[in-house]
Amino acid sequence: MIAQLSRDVRQYMLVTFNYWNFTITDGALRMLVVLYFHDLGYSSLQIASLFLFYEFFGVVTNLVGGWLGARLGLNRTMNIGLAMQIIALVMLAVPSEWLLVPWVMAAQAMSGIAKDLNKMSAKSAIKTLVPDDQQSALYRWVAILTGSKNALKGLGFFLGGLLLTVFGFTAAVLIMAGVLALVFIGSMVWLDKDMGKAKSKPKFSQMFSKSSHINILSLARMFLFGARDVWFVVALPIYLGTVFGWDHSMVGGFLALWVIAYGFVQGLAPKITGKASGTVPDGKGAMLWAGVLAAVTGVIAYSVQVQFYPQVVIVVGLLIFGAIFAINSSLHSYLIVSYAKGDGVSMDVGFYYMANAMGRLIGTVLSGWVFQIAGLAACMWVSFGFLLIATLVSIALPRRETLASA
User: Fold this and answer.
1) For residue range 50-106, what is the model confidence (pLDDT) as tens digits?
2) CA distance linking residue 363 with residue 354, whole number of Å
3) Range(s) of the domain holding residue 265
4) What CATH number corresponds to the domain at position 309?
5) Structure-derived torsion over alpha carbons of residues 195, 200, 204, 207, reported in degrees to the nearest 10
6) How many domains are contained in the chain?
7) pTM
8) Which residues are CB-neighbours of 129 under 8 A, at least 6 positions away?
C-alpha cells in the first residue's frame, strides 16, 4: 500500500516517522534526567540548570542549522540530528559517579543541538513537498506534524518514568539509543538526498533573515514561548509539589497530560481557525489569538495572586492556557513555512526557530529566578506581559490581502 503512494507523501511519512521517534526519546530523556537526578539529591533549581545548555545551544543550532540545511540538504541535517541524539544518550550511559554536572550539561547540549537540527529539518521539509498554491494543505500538514510532536513528547514523559522504574537509568538510555540507531539507518537509506538543498550555495552572512515578515513573526514567537516557559519549566513543578503537596507521579502526570492535550489541540487548529470555511490564517489571526491568550493569562495571574481557589484556577486555567497556546503555536508554525522562501527554506525556518529557542532560554532562566524571589503569581504576570508584547508585535504581520498583492 505504501508503495502506491506518491513520492512526496512517502517522504512526508518518513520525515514524520523520524521526527516522532526523536520526539519520544527527547521527552523521555527530559523526564529521566529530572527524576533520576532528583533521586541523586539534586534540588529542583539545580536540575533546571542542567537544561540551560540544552536551550542555549538550541538558539545557536537553529541559526547555523538553517544555513547548513540550505547548503547540505535537509536529509543530512536530519540524520546529523539523529546521530547526535544517539551520542548524547550513550554519554549518559556511564556509572553514576561519572555523571557530574559538567558531563551532564555537555550531554544535554548535544541533545539540544540534535533536537533543533531534527525539528528544523522536519518543518522545512514540508515546504519542499507541498506546492506553493496549496496553502490549505500546507497548513494541515504542518498542524499534523506539530500537534503529533507535542502529543508524543507527552507520551515520552510517561515512557521516561516507566523505563526508569522497570530498567533503571543506564539501561533506559541505552534502549532509546538502540531504537534511534535503527531509525537512523532507515533514514540514511530512504530519505531523498537533495531535499531542501538550495540551488545556489548561501553565504554564512545570509543566515539572518532579510524578510520583515519573518523578523516580525520571529519576535512574536520569542515572546510567545518565553511566556509559556517562564512558569512551565521550573515554577509550576515546584509549586505543585511544595504548595499543593503533589507527589512526583502526580506532577509528572499533569505535565504529560498538559503536553498531550496541547498537541491534540494543535492538530485541530486548522479547523478551529477557519480552514473549515475554506480560509487560511494570516497576521490578523495571529494577533487576535495572542490577545485572547494574554487575557486568559491575566485572569490566572490575578486569581493566583489573591488566592482565589488557586488549585482549581491553576489546573483548569492552565489547561485552557494550553489549548489557546496550542492554536497560537500552530498558527505561527504555518505562517513561518508559508512566509519562507522555497529555495533554501531551512534558512528562514532556522532563523525563526532560533527566536523560538531564545524565548525558551529566557523563559527557563526567568522561571527559576522570578519564582525564587516572588512566587508563581509573579511568573504568571511576566507571562502576561510577554503575551501583550507578542500581541502588539503581531499587529505588524501582513494580512491576507497584503500577501496576495505581493
Assistant:
1) 888 888 888 888 777 767 777 777 778 889 999 999 999 999 999 888 888 889 889
2) 14
3) 2-197+206-405
4) 1.20.1250.20
5) -60
6) 1
7) 0.75
8) 8, 11, 12, 141
